[in-house]
Records
---
Amino acid sequence: MAQLHIALAGNPNSGKTSTFNVLTGTNQFVGNWPGVTVERKEGRYKKNSDVTIDDLPGIYSLSPYSPEEVVARDYLLSDTPDAIINIIDGTNLERNLYLTTQLIETGIPVVVAVNMMDIVKKSGKQINLEKLAYALGVPVVGVSALKNFGIDKAVNEAIHLIEKGRTEVSFPHYDRRLEAALSEIEEVLGSTVLAKYSRFYSVKLFERDEQALTQLDLSKIQQKEIAEIVQITEKIFGDDAESLIINERYNFITHLTTLCVVNGDHFKLSLS
Ligand code: BGO
């Protein structure tokens, strides 16, 4: 079997380091990402040396606003791991799912590992992982890095996704007027980007992301057409493009959590 690369991605404090340590034990290499003083950690999976685990820096978003975000994004879009395990803090789902929506948009196979399940269970909160998986369109596994449960299952899910190969990827779905604009941008991009990255770049170009604009080296005509699409959509929504995407991500996440989470208090109330 060829060496498989699985990246761990997540917010700071989501439990990435703890997960990485459980997966790799002492089998770790620590260095820096090229050109920046951001720590880079890589290790072999203890239970299968054909699998390399790359620990990405803790990030909240894939915008190019911090060295950590730039490093993570460059790695995902150029070195491209075979799969991503997205570690999210189950006690703080809403905030953590913001990055999840962006990771899924990279087109790289994603497994979501909902960490801190030991705390979630004690709190009485219930997260319906099956529903979450269905609504996100990716496998979701409940884990606790502290108690070492579920983590191997997350890796096995990732390996399974890699072996299965690319099937139709479903992305978080936004307001239909925004979706129409994103499809138009994808059309303008055509073969400028690999098909698997076209959703990611259409969203980034909609946001007027400087790094995406520089990287893609678009023709003047493409730039003009995309600028027009963005301006028209901003007029329709009466909001600027970047805020619009942020709002739509949060609308999607609110819908998800309403569907998948029952808080301990609500549960008790409904019984009384
Ligand atoms: C401290 N369950 C519980 N209960 N805690 C967890 C779990 C889990 O599944 N996973 C991680 N933690 P990192 P990033 C700490 O360090 O892996 C805890 O940033 C403390 N430290 O032990 O570092 C983990 O790499 C003193 O907690 O996250 C750590 O993503 C008191 O979550 C924290 C209490 O995990 C962050 C906790 C001196």
Note: The pocket of BGO is lined by residues 10, 12-18, 58, 115-116, 118-119, 144-146 (CB under 6 Å).
---
Amino acid sequence: MYNPSVSGGSANTLAGSRLFVYEVEGLCQNSETDQANYPIRQSGSTYITVPYSRMNQEMQRITRLGGRILSIRPVESSVNGSAQVTAESQAASKSSKSMTQAQPEAKKKKSDIPVNIYKPKQPFMAKVIANDPLVREGGIGIVQHIILDLTGSEYRYLEGQSAGIIPEGTDEKGKPHKLRLYSIASTRHGDLMDDKTVSLCVRQLEYNHPETGEKVYGVCSSYLCGLEKGAEVQVTGPVGKEMLLPDDEDATIIMMATGTGIAPFRAYLQRMFDEKERQANPDYQFRGFAWLIFGIPVTPNILYKEELESVQAQYPDNFRLTYALSREQKNAEGGKMYIQNRVAEQADELWKLIQEPKTHTYICGLKGMEDGIDAALAAAAEKNGVNWEEFRKQMKKDGRWHVETY
Ligand code: FAD
């Protein structure tokens, strides 16, 4: 299995044999720092060049020796072989806090989780940077990827949290609309990697009125899907502690999504596998195993298809992608292939993984998807003499079972 922290291993597949310069303060000259060959200076910061493959170890050693990392910059080898900081990385270090500051990412102590920085009474006015369709030709309905600019706000969030949106206008009683929640589809650094945006994946709610048969469109989802670039939106939050990713870089992450339930998983996968993310988070270098089971009606509705398939192609040992295409594929009984049918098909393998303490299981998407998945896993557990209900409860207590459906 791919392991980026092993020097000389297959790390090249992710970051290559790149070098990084750590700017460190607080180190004192002693036998250990001498042994480590750290060029301690009498005053100011010390600069230490570290190969990508040793970033974690060096970070731990520096911390152990009392040093504090002030910044990290990628280095490019010049023609004569000496290391130099690129203009691009210098610019990045000026403009982007996340690219340069190497404070260890928050270990998820409750107090470290940002919650309700912006409350419904005082939302932040974000600007729409992008509003792009995710459903391709021949697909069903409207789903948009929306990037909101948070410049000037205190807003920050973690992967797995949700943002609140207050749509413009008033409800039928003339009162301002209530906020709706949307899972955040970007990592904490945002799609532009500048810690200044948040992305959402929004499906326009559309249904036939059960009595009149009239087409009804959801208030907030229609508002969001129809926003033009440059429009302003009231954003609250972030909220949610249920769907956070564990800090464990060796974890197994099982993700089951239907429709826009993919949103938090897109953020997880970027955090785990995207090269820019990995450079920005030297203390989170995922080397575990992630498995996404994604239920969607037809191929053109596979949200973020290219991104997902690119991760699978690049990291086949670390990421498995399984689709359940209900209107295109058939289950074992010849019926539609819903996510629960796919889970049932893979239940023995899933059950094996789920029992391992390092495995976290996440379910996100349509209300109602949980029961079928539960039944499929219960069958596998009970085949092995385990009471699934109790086992699941224990997983929940251990913080390994995460569900967000709506
Ligand atoms: P509204 O105008 O509020 O209409 C919704 C109401 O319409 C329902 O309450 C119900 O009364 C009625 N209704 C809906 N469907 C039918 C039907 N078939 N038949 C009859 N009546 C019906 N949505 C996303 O698109 N992406 C996300 O990432 C996302 N994440 C979420 C995360 C969380 C934690 C939660 C709680 C919800 C999330 N949602 C997400 C759902 C989102 O919050 C809104 O509920 C959704 O967009 C609909 O809001 P609306 O204002 O458009 O619809």
Note: The longest helix spans residues 369-383.
